[in-house]
Amino acid sequence: AQSVTQLDSHVSVSEGTPVLLRCNYSSSYSPSLFWYVQHPNKGLQLLLKYTSAATLVKGINGFEAEFKKSETSFHLTKPSAHMSDAAEYFCVVSDGGFTGGGNKLTFGTGTQLKVEL
Amino acid sequence: GAGVSQSPSNKVTEKGKDVELRCDPISGHTALYWYRQRLGQGLEFLIYFQGNSAPDKSGLPSDRFSAERTGESVSTLTIQRTQQEDSAVYLCASSLGGQGSYEQYFGPGTRLTVT
Q1: Tell me, what's the pLDDT at B99?
Q2: Which secondary-structure segment (H or E) carries B4?
Q3: pLDDT digits (tens, 9 = 90+) for A20-69
Q4: Residues with Cβ within 8 Å of residue A116, at least 6 apart in sequence
């Protein structure tokens, strides 16, 4: 079984300050991990993914995440927030499709990021 | 190119009625997934299609829910005798294959409201 816990349902930062969105996971397999972003009235967009290559993953729009197996964490960071980053962010885990049931994604409950001037 | 499309974008129905939701995946994508997103929650997996293989229905919440896919094309999700707890956004995603290396591309969703 796999699961994801997003530790904060809401995060508020000032524009230009760092962003940290926390995520812990559990998985019976070597997991694939993803961060998706959902802007209001728009579809889900993949920010970045970890699939057992480099533990520090760089994504779009300046976001990155570090896979830490010892801490079962995959926190999302960005050095400097921009107003356009305001959205809901989902941490996602998958067994990679190796259980034969396809690449079923298990989503966290989401973190709403607010960016203030 | 065209992304994943879903119709209708919004559907309001009375409790007890049947509804049918449609998903058009990206051309050439063999894998197709349906998810449900209830208000304030993450997405829940419902069903997975891969090519001509038998679908993985392990996420369907009850026998009122069913889905079909025509080859590697359109899919329809049917909810019979709708209940208020079925109110949610239903999202469809497609990918080139069923392994973890393939990114899932999501459609805009169908917002279902059961009154």
Answers
A1: 67
A2: none
A3: 999 999 987 778 899 999 998 778 899 999 887 788 999 999 999 999 99
A4: A12, A13, A14, A15
Closest residue to B42, CB basis, from A42, A46, A90? A90
Which string of b and e fits B39-51 if b means at least 16 CB within 10 Å?
eeebbbbbbbbbe
Residue A12 has pLDDT above 60, yes or no: yes
Distances (CA, A) of A112 to A11, A19, A20, A49, A104: 6, 12, 12, 20, 23
The pLDDT value recorded for residue A102 is: 62
Q: Which residues contact A9 (CB under 8 A, 6 or more apart)?
A: A109, A110, A111, A112
Q: Which residue has the tokens 């449609």?
A: B22
Query: Beta strand A3-6 with B110-114: parallel, antiparallel or unpaired?
Result: unpaired
Task: Tell me whether strands A56-58 and A23-26 are parallel, antiparallel or unpaired.
Answer: unpaired
Phi, psi (rounded to 5 degrees) for A60: -80, 160
For A47, the closest chain B residue by CA position comes to B103
Helix, strand, coil percent content, chain B, rounded in steps of 5: 5, 45, 50
Determine the residue of chain A that is closest to B31 in CA distance: A102
B3 Cα to chain A: minimum distance (Å): 10
Q: What is the pLDDT of residues B71-113, one digit of tens each?
A: 888 999 999 999 999 999 999 999 987 666 678 899 999 999 9
> What pLDDT is recorded for position A101?
54
Between the alpha carbon of residue A7 and those of residues A20, A89, B17, B44, the distances in Å are 11, 12, 38, 18
